[in-house]
Structures are given as structure tokens and as C-alpha cells.
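Let us work through a complete example step by step.
Step 1: write down the sequence.
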Amino acid sequence: MESSSPANIPRWAPSPSPSRSLLSPVEDPRIEPSPDHNDYESAKDGISSSSSSMDRIFPFSNAFNGTITSTCTVSVVEKSVEAKGAYVRRRSGTMGVSLTWEDLWVGVSDRKGGQKMILQGLTGFAQPGEVLAIMGPSGCGKTTLLDALAGRLSSSTQQRGKILINGRKVKLAFGTSAYVTQDDTLMTTLTVREVVYYSAQLQLPNSMSKAEKKERAETTIREMGLQACMDTRIGGWSRKGLSGGQKRRVSICIEILTRPRLLFLDEPTSGLDSAASYHVMNRIVKLAHRDGRTIIASIHQPSSEVFELFENLCLLSSGRTVYFGPASQAEQFFASNGFPCPTLRNPSDHCLRTINKDFDIEQGHDGIPSTEEVINTLIRSYESSNTSKQVHHSVAEICQQKGGALEKGSQANFITQCLVLTRRSFVNMYRDLGYYWLRLAIYIALCLCVGTIFHDIGSTFGSIQARGSMLMFVASFLTFMAIGGFPSFVEDMKIFGRERLNGHYGVAAYLVGNTFSSIPYLLIISLIPGAIAYYLVGLQKSLEHFTYFALVLFVCMMLVESLMMIVASIVPDFLMGIITGAGIQGVMMLTGGFFRLPDDLPKPFWRYPMYYIAFHKYAFQGFYKNEFEELTFPSNQAGGAPTITGEDILTSIWQVEMGYSKWIDLAILFGMVIVYRLMFLGIIKFSEKVVPMIKAVLVAQLQLPNSMSKAEKKVRAETTIKEMGLQNSMDTRIGGWGKKGLSGGQKRRVSICIEILTRPKLLFLDEPTSGLDSAASYHVMNRIIKLAHHDGMTVVASIHQPSSEVFELFQNLCLLSSANFMTQCLVLTRRSFVNMYRDLGYYWLRLFIYISLCLCVGTIYHEIDTSYDSIQDRATSLMFVAAFLTFMAIGGFPSFVEDMKIFERERLNGHYGVASFVLGNSFSSIPYLLMNSLIPGAIAYFLVGFQRTFDHFAYFALALFVALMLVESLMMIVASIVPDFLMGVITGSGILGVMLLNGGFLPKT
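Step 2: predict the structure and record it as C-alpha cells.
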């Protein structure tokens, strides 16, 4: 390569280490040649011969002052494309998949109404038999590029540019592609063998026998090095299972079962050590070479051995292409532009460190160019190079070849999928204590309470009201508690979403499997608790009457589960979903005919159609007909008949429609189950999903002493943020379901920021570089080491996969096979207040649901008057407000659990004590609870027409406020004992149910 004077080329090295000579690529002995491998080998020979030394011709030119001219007689990219195409075409019966993208732009809308571009004009290709690595710093657009190529971008993004498969604009189908996401969404109760085998039964065609599918599953498990833990469960909250790296390999196993022709891998080595990373990637590369697969992988921090496995490299920075071409020549590209790789440094680490501008505060002085200048230099050089031109030419050539049209791969038929999904779901429900077994225990406890409170109810006139109250409690509150299964539905939906996107099965198969697998458990939950309540109370004791009672209870629970499945498909977030589902059931309960009798409901909307839509109508009427028909009670009317029949009670007291039998009510309930499940199917097919929310963290002032002013604390916080390379995202929210925020690596650095604010004398770091690329890992650890040297800090760190530069920072190796109380309270109150303000699900959604419910109460009981009949109406409206609105405060339980996790971490690190947390949480919640009491309370109070003096309303609002605060306090106690969403919601619901039973509204006589 000829160049102008070296003085005209900026030279830069990240460390004083001398620059090393460039190494010639060597043939990988791990790749086994085959007789028809000649074309591929010739391409490799071409690459080797064209990149043997620094003196050889190099196809790059610089685009800044002092140009470098270069020529290339043989295009390495073109030769590789031609050789690969010939190699794949000669594979017997194998049609490869070529993927190209040209001038690809992806953007999202920003707050100001403009557009923020994530990807900017990218062009590239992926060929059969090759592995393309996508690399770059955190937040550079790696995952976005993968999602765009796989057709998985969300509807909130805007995309332009051409993405073609074999030169055609087609959608990817099952058997053609597979996608391994960053998140390992697996069924935690199953073993590795079961997870992979069930997936094999779903994906592999019926033409394969069960033995062949089992053999394929076990072979794939062994290929990923998981043979030692085949019978180990994945693990969850109640049982420790696989490590993070093992779960990652299980996720890869599932997606390579079908040997897809196009495989997308989003950080496949995340959580793996260097040895496991190499073996996993080596196996994937062998699959690509052996079967002509096209593999595109975003990679975070590859070791030198892993980096050498890649044929091509796409290097990104801030959504722009820094380099696209043979991975073996990336090092030479950097060297030709004045940024040679130091001796003994991993080339991939060097590339990432060179283009990582998050830590630009350490550069841009003493004549060293800033990282932004370095990136611009490299981008200009690449865009003006022969390699860039060759990439565009290769893309055009691949598109012109118009490869064969893709055909959908064969898989298990619908019946097989339904059977497998039913069996898998049944096993999961059996092993998951919180799915049904805890609910069974709570239901038994509640039904024992019902049975003892209403024990031997008798047949007096007063027992009429008691029977109605007891049956209402069973039909309303026992079924209401089925929302406790919502967290499990959300987890199932995550697994279903991943498998559906990869084409493992359809919505209908999932729906059938989930429905049939839940039936035995719902029958148990209906029969055992139902029998306890039924016979202890002393309802009609014939088998027919009890069978009907249990069937209605069973169908109502199935209805609520169907409703929560619909909610989970729209709002896949624990907190938002529980509150939404509770609100919907509250409206149905209000209009079911118990709280206000059917004839008293306002005709527009509430009587027609809401009364007929609410499933409680048919449950109440079915229960009442089943119990009161054929019974006779003494009458308390003076001068009237001495007795009153059950039929008269149904028509005059409960206003039940007697034109059809109780079995019609049951049939309507069954029909509603079918309608709800079909609604779920329709919503899944046409609605977009969202992801859960993670609350923003504001911690800087909690740990720093009062001797520091606010300005000093602010400077310390901002300095620490810059030291961790987060200056460009200072004002970016952490992110969650409602807003995309920081990347995983950036969140990791925020956590480190929080802990080094006080410059502690002893610092423990549990895998501080997890989720960071090599450049970010080096800068973060280098900063921590400098702090240790400067302040005499003792640092103990567990480390997973350090680069050579990070490893050199450590002195010793162990190899194994805060502020005063008042300030803390004030800061915690302010932080919690901000978190509650920004988290839509904490109080704002509850406020919206409360307003909606109180509007319902106000319009249903509007201008209640002072007649004799209004006595019961006033009592039921007040009971609904006092019981059900406060009951809905359990919807905040998931937020309490998240707060407890943060509290435990910060308390263990000595940031503050329990008292500070309790006071901060209590005071920060008061304004929101007051708002949730005053606004909805005023709507209900004045629309209904209660006493309109200020004194009476103030008491009403204060009683509602204190009741809400009491339930929140109860749920905080539960969260401290049962730190699991599902178990906590069910436990809290059971406690509130017992309190409601004993509150005095549901009388025995």
C-alpha cells in the first residue's frame, strides 16, 4: 500500500503498547473440508493471498487531508461472493438464502415531534455458508439492524430502504429463518431435555418419528454442551436451576433444531465465559459451513478465537457503518487509517475501543484526536474505499441473480401441536406452585370462612338475604381472585410470543392447549372449595344442585381466566394488567344485579346492554334459581300469607328472569367462555405487544453527606456519569414498557455509578462488565482501578469474560472450578414521588380506573332519593366503594415488589435504613392516595346524592383515603414476606377476602 507522508495521517494508539505487525489469516483447522468444497476453499485462498502482509495491496483509501491512494486487482468481497455462491449451489438439494439490505434507515419519533435515526443508510449482505458478525458499542443499533432484517421492528419505528431475500421482497416463513433473542424466555418448571424435546415435537414434521425427534433434541443439547444438565430444571423464583449462560445455550438449542437456512442471533454469547462462547460459536459456524446456512449475529465482546470464526464483519457506530467486509481485514483497515492494533491486543477489542465515544472525556487532548473525529475519519475512509464500492456491487449482483423462491418448511400438524402444547402446559401448571396450587389453598381457606360464617344457614326469613349474600360472594369475589393468575399468563404470553414469532405454532394451537390443560385444575378448584362452602352452609343437598353449583363456579373461573388472557394480550405488564382486569370485573360486578336490582338500573347503557354483557348476571341468576326453587320460607308480612315460595323470592326480591331454566344460564356462561377465547385469538392476530416498564432511578443524593452542598452533590453525580461514559444519555429515562430507554450495558453502568458515588473504601462488584462491550468494559474497570489507586479503595470483583486489557488491570486473581436520617427521608420521599409520577401504572392508571368505576357507581345509583328501597341501595353502593375500590389497591403489588428489590440492594450496601425507606414511601404516596380518594370519591358521592354537607363528604373521602393506605400497607407487608408477583397477589387477595367476609355487610341472618 502506498501512502502520502505519515505526517499527514493522524496516528493514535489507546495505550503506550507498541503497534504489532499484522498477522496473516490462517486456515481454521476446525472446519472440515468436503469434496465439493473447492470453490469455498479457493475463496479463502484468495483472501489469504490478498492480505498476507502490510506491504500487500489494500482496498481502502483515506478521505481526509493527505490522501492515500490504493488499488486492488482482485476484489476480495466479489471473489468471496462468487465462491460462496458456487459452493452453496453445488451442495446437493440445498438452496441457500442470500440476504441483502440497501440504504437502510430506521428511526423513531422523539419528544419534540421530530425523528431520531437509529440506523443511517446501511448497506450490506449475508451469504450462505457464512457468518456475519454485527459489532459496535452499546446503543449503536445492532439489535435494531437484526430486527429490521428479520422483519421484527415495532410499529412505532419508521423504516425505509430495501431488504431482499434471494433478490426478492418476500416475508420470512417457518423453516426459512429463526431468531434467538437476547432474553431467554423459557418455561422455568421444565428440564432442559423437556424444553428442547417439546420444541422438537412442535417444530419437526410428522414425517419424523418420535424417536428421531428425541434423538435430534438430545444431539442438539450435546452440541451446545448441556449434556451434564439435561435433567435440570430451567429454574425460577421457587427453585434454583440453570445459570444465565446455560439458559442462553438452551435458547440457541431450540432455534437450531430445524437447521434453519437463515439464523439471526442477538448476542448469543451473552452470559457465557470465553470457552463456552468459543464452543457455541464454533458449532454454529460449522453448521453454516456444513449445511450452507446464512447466519447473522450481533456480538458484544468476542474473544480473539471467536472473532476469527467470522467471515464478514459489520462494524457500527451510532447507526452508521464504520466497516463492512472480511473480518480478517478489519485490523488492516484500522491500521491503514492510522489506528494500528497494539501488540497482543484482541483485534475486536481494539476496534470497539477505537470507535466507542461514550468515554470521550479521556481523549481529545494533548494532540490525541477525539473519538468522534476518529469515527468520522474511519467512516469517510470506508465510504471512499474500494471495499465499500465492492459491497454495493455485490449487493446489486446478488439481487440480479434472483435465487429460488423460499418455501415454508414442514412442521408438526395442528393436532400434534395441540396435544404437545396441552401436555407441556399441564406439566408446567402442575409444577408451578403459584399457578393453581396456592389458589387452591387460598380458596379452601376462604370457603372454610364462608362455611363457618354462614354455617347451617337454616330456612328463616332472614336467611333469604344471607343466602343471596353468600352466593354473591362466591360468584363475585372467589372468581375475582382468578386475577391472581395474571402473572403466570404474562409469562406464558412471553413464551408464546417468542415461539409464535419464530413460527413454531399458531394462535389456535396455543389457545386449545392452554384451555384443555387448565380444565382439570379449574375443576379441582371448583369442586373441593365449592363442596366445603356448599355443605357447611347447608344449601340444598341433592347431587344435582351441588353439581350445578360446582359447574357454575367452574365456568365463572374459566371466564375470568379468559378475560385475563385477553388483558394479557393487550397489556403484558403485571401492574397495568391486574388493575385493568380488576376494573373490568368491577364494572361487571356492579351491573350484575346484586348491588342494584335489575329493575333499578338506569335503562340506557347500564340495563341495556351492560346488564346482559356482565357474566355476573347469569352466575347470580343461575345460583339463585338453583338454590331458591322448590324451597319455602316463613313470611314476615303482616296480614299476608304465612309462607313465601322460592319462586316468589326470585321474582319479587331478586328480580330474576324466570322465562328460562337455570341450565340456559349455564349454557350462556359456556358460550361466553368460547366468545372470550375467540376474542383473545382475534386480538393476538391484530394487536401489537408492549414490554414491561422499569422504573427510573434517582439515587445520587442518598449517600452523600450533608457537609456537601447540593451543587457539589450535583457536580459529583454528573462527574461520575461522565466517568461511566453516560454523558450522552444523561436525560434519557431508564426505559420500560411505555418508552424505550437505555440499553442493557448502559443500565449496568448506571448501577455502577450509584455505588461509586461515595468513593467507598471497600467496593464489591458482581460481574461489573456484564452486558458491556470490550471497550466499555475496559474504560469502566480502568476508572474503578484508578479510583482504587487514588483513594486507597479495596476492590473485590467477580468477572465473567475479561478481555486481555481488562485482565491486565487486576493485581490479584482468585480462580475457582451514607447521609443523616432526615436527608435520607427527604431524598427517598422525593425520589419515590418522581417514580410514582412517571410510572403510569403506579397511581395514574388506578386513578383512571377509579374515576371510571365511580362514574359507573354514580350513574347506576344516580339521585338515590330517600325511599325505603334506597336503604339497601345506599348500603350496597357504600359497600362497593369501601370493599371493592380498596380491594383494587392490590394492583400496586408488583410495584411494591420492585421497590423492595431496590430497597434490599441499597440497604445491604448501607445507603439507608428501614425507617428511612418506610417514611419516604409513606410520605411520597400521600398526595397520590389523596387524589385517588378525593376525585373519584367526589364523583361517586355527589352523583349518587349522599348528604351534601362538607363535613359528611370530608369524612367519606378521608375514610376512603385511610382504607386505601391500609390496603397498601398490607400489601407492603405481603411483599416483604412473599416477594413474588403471583404468590403475593393471591395471598393479599385471600387476606382481603377474609376481612371482607367479616366486615359485617354479608349477614348470616
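Step 3: interpret the result. Residues 507-537 form the longest helix (31 residues).
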